[in-house]
Amino acid sequence: MAGLQPDNPYAKERFPDETKRVEFPPEAKKRFEWILTRYPTKEAALLPTLHLAQEVWGWISPEAVHYVGDLLDLSPATVFGVVSFYNMYNQKPVGKYHLQVCTNLSCMVTRAYDIYEHLCDKLSVKPGATTRDGLYTVTEVECLGSCDTAPVVQVNNDYHENMSVQKMDELLTRLK
Amino acid sequence: MMEPIKILLANIDKPNSVSIDVYGDYAQARKALQMAPDQITQIVKDSELRGRGGAGFPTGNKWGFVPKNAPKPIWLLCNADESEPGTFKDRVIIEKDPHLLIEGMIITAYAIRSNPMSYIYIRGEFYYGATVLEKALDEARAKGFLGKGIFGTNFDFDITVARGAGAYICGEETGLIESIEGHRGQPRVKPPFPAIIGAFGGPTVVQNVETLACVPLIIDKGAEWFKGFGSPRNTGPKLYCLSGCVKKPGVYEFPLGVNLKELIYEHAGGITGDRKLKAVIPGGASAPMLTADEIDIPLNFDALMKAGSMLGSAGIIVLDETVCIVDAVWRLAKFFAHESCGQCTPCREGCNWMESILDRIERGGGRPEDADLLLDMSDNIGGKSLCALGDAAIGPVISSVKKFRDEYLYHVEHKRCLPETIRYRRLDMPVAAH
To answer: What's the rounded Cα separation, in Å, for the pair B399 and B49?
Structure first.
């Protein structure tokens, strides 16, 4: 998701802060050990470990890239290559509620862009950006595989189906 | 008129259909594990089951390609990376009847002599589906249907849910294998085909969710019963996904080969607002579109291929007269440009160029030569990349330019869309780069 990538590839925030080291909390460490038992190679555990890291920290920081690399004996470049390939790994912190509006064809013809444009206007954010209070991030996403209940908005992990501008407004009042 | 059937979807309306107690005790897997692996492969070959993921490759033949005495472990991977725009059939099975899929995987793994571990690669967005599967797998393990020596045989088998992270290309089988191995999901050069060298260097069979869900049914009722649905070489029950401008969108089950016109007008209640039909995409975003005059056609692999389109994943997107074809194709081109993995130049650059040209036509800046330019570019993308994404991306472009050339020319001449169309998006919104 381009909107969540640092705009400048040489931006300072793209490099780890040497003074900050991150580590999984004990619960996540246990989960990581379990993940390792499910794959024949350490490298194959990379995607699930990154999902775990994102669950813990909300995004994949450069520090997390180095930490995950150390855990799996992979170079930070390899880990970052994977992080940047997959849309769902956030390369920037996101809001408490990540509003992901599908605008692909079936959603588009059921007026998904109205919802997307309404959200950007109402929350005064650019696509892919987070509101100042850190509550919402609005992103346009590709097909969510729920075209019969279009338009669909995914908020964090949950699908909200058969949406409309009005329903979106109602949902926003509940997401505080 | 063909009546809808309830075979693959037989369980979904039962209360608590996800529970193993409602589903049953895996009778077909028990039965299959008493047979010889090759006997199962032969039954599936006889049933003429073809892969439901998009390519329609005969499933039994695929299993037959796996070498008997492979030095490396054999892998079974379930492709649940359902991301083709317009497709949402696997999600129904995953979320409503996960045990049917698990039972299908046990039988398939036994037939191909899989090693004791297997993966369901589910797209990352299906978080709920992944939790349903995890729970179903726990239930099956608790009953001893997964694990060591299942059903009193010496066959060990277990399944792990591997979540993707938002990449359409991981639905391509070698992209999926790369992703399972922990890499960027960039497809591999073929040959060697996955059946010879796939995941972790071993022979690998990748099957779609719906295909695997057909397997227990074939074991239960036999190949002849399965062939009783549909027509020769296009057999079995099939899930059709209907979305877009129709009154009753949803997943419909029919014998393979239901008539498209009948499906839209009789079963799905016709077009939203009783408007005029303009075009239909019959097999997910990659399938070349059909015009309103071309929809009197059976929805099966061979008939659609003959009509210059494809059944693909059976994701049918209906577009009515209010939809601007250029805008619709732009949206699909944007999708493919976003999802191109970046490995092959013709696809990576070409998809972006096609998106830009379609955008400029839509905005009134089109040039008279643009329609032919799109065809020329398509010619330079199709067949010139490692996987089928490039070929998929040109499907809607070529078909729309050929079938709706007048509409393209109208845009160029009048610098706006046809008067009957509706603006489905604001043109002043910034469009995210890829």
So the answer is: 29
